[in-house]
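**User:**
Make up any protein.

**Assistant:**
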Amino acid sequence: MKDFKEIIEILSKNNETIATMESCTGGGVANAITNIEGASNVLKFSAVTYSNEYKIKMGVDSNIIDKYSVYSIETAHEMAKNISDFANSTYGIGITGKLNRADEANNFGADNEVFISIYHDGEYVDLSLKVDKKSRRENKDLVIDAIIDELGRVVNEKN
């Protein structure tokens, strides 16, 4: 797995911050960030909102979940923007999806698709990934690597 070292260095140098609202990755992104020295300079807040109830409590509009499903880029947008606003951070990352399992409470969307949104300055950068590894851990690593690549690209473009 890749790491957040270069991203943390750039954000720290520019006094920029990040916050995450994660669902299927279960805090894996925040963990990967905090594995890097200097992370405390940039990570403002992280929430694991595994249930719809807590996504809504953290500001995700329930109408978005009802209309598009919890497994959608629209929900990831809401997660990214709301966590950025909540933490007053420069960047917000929202992650939702399914890792090799059906969800009987939310039976919309593919069982092996993850939606990621990176929010910055009123704009969204979106990813959707097919996750096809046998284990949840391997699929989480795929998602985290994709976030590192895309966030690195966005941070480098902005700075």
Observations:
- The chain has a mean pLDDT of 91.
- The longest strand covers residues 113-120.
- The helical segments are 5-13, 28-34, 52-57, 62-68, 73-87, 136-158.
